[in-house]
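Hallway conversation turned thread

IA: we were arguing at lunch whether anyone had actually written out Hexosyltransferase end to end. Turns out nobody had. So, for the record, here is the sequence (417 residues) and right after it the structure tokens. Reply here if something looks off.
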Amino acid sequence: MINGRNKYNTNGYDHDLQLLNKIYFTSINCLRRYGRRRLCIPCFFFVILCFNLQILNRKPNVHEEHIDRSVPCNQSSIRKHFMNNLRPEELFTQNLSQSSFTYEISNENFCSLSVPHALIFVISKSTNFGSRNAIRRTWGDFTQLNSVEKFANLKLKLLFLIDIDAMFIQNINLEQSLYHDLVQVRLPQHYSLSTYRDMAILDWTETYCSQALLTIKSDDDVFLNMYLVANVLTYIITNTTISTEKIECKHVENLNSMAVIYGFKFQHAHVVRHAADLAPEEARYIITDNEYPCTHYPDFMSGFGYIINRNARLKLLCAFFRHQKSFHLSDVYITGILAEYLNIQRQHLRFKISYESADECVVFFNQKNAYACASSLHYKEQTSSLLKDVYIFERFYTYWKRVHQNQRLFINYDSFF
């Protein structure tokens, strides 16, 4: 789904069948109208010849005989297309096909003194210091949150996953020395970068903070309502069983009933096959048959703030490191394709998310289930980076004041599912 648009191509053979029907009825009408076969029959055979040439020139797709392309790819079709036809229990016994993640800034001691219940990872570009600082001073500051009796014992930690930009190395090192909340992953040139980056969140959590029960993913232009986040986290931690033991991949299939991803769920989203009516920045959403063979995606979560429990985290990592055919739409891949293949439950939260770019977050956060709001902060043109940083903080602080004013709405909300 792209801004509510449903753009996709139908199966090519449906088109061929429609064309054949047109040829048939056109020929019949010709014979009825003119009654002279010498005029109609040569045209009929010429069109049939063109039709056959079109069929012969069509490139066959090895998946067309095995995959129902008119529905979302299910576990079976995902297994055939992405996993060399291996079932999860078979895949988990394979040797690693992906190299381990490497980090320029690993921040390996981040959880050594205090293990959080939930680790919140925010995706950020090296250049976006203003956004990171605005988050640290507003929704990423958990002091006021922990002053609420209901959340007094909830342990949360915030980290920013950033890219490597040679122009900003000194700035990033200084920022890390001040705040100690950065993780910088080395991204391979050949890989689907957003997918690799988002999987690095899970890898870092399991490597350096494995006792964290939950991992939350968001972006630095998203304002999270932490009262609502804390409310649902408290419910999940209190009412579900999450493994804290070290489990090898060959045994991870035993976690079936407890592996869950929570968030705002997209259902029956169409696959975009062509560029009609797409903005230039949306071109990355165009997907070929070879990349993904079905017309719809499996149910997947919005990247604005999905929550992955440790059981799901383990299964996703075990599968990711053992297969080579990835997919560049990271939210679809991680919370949709991989989750469907691994039989991970995707639990829809009855929250609202605002995707508007007109900065209407202040009004949006008057609703009792307003979970996350996108801001157009990165698109604000200013004469200097300093003015831009000031603007970002002012906007986030305005949102934060509104959320804080309405905190009772969010603290008492209990219709999660």
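OS: looked through it. The first strand starts at residue 103 and ends at 105.
IA: good, adding that to the notes. Confidence is low (pLDDT under 50) at residues 1-37, 46-65.
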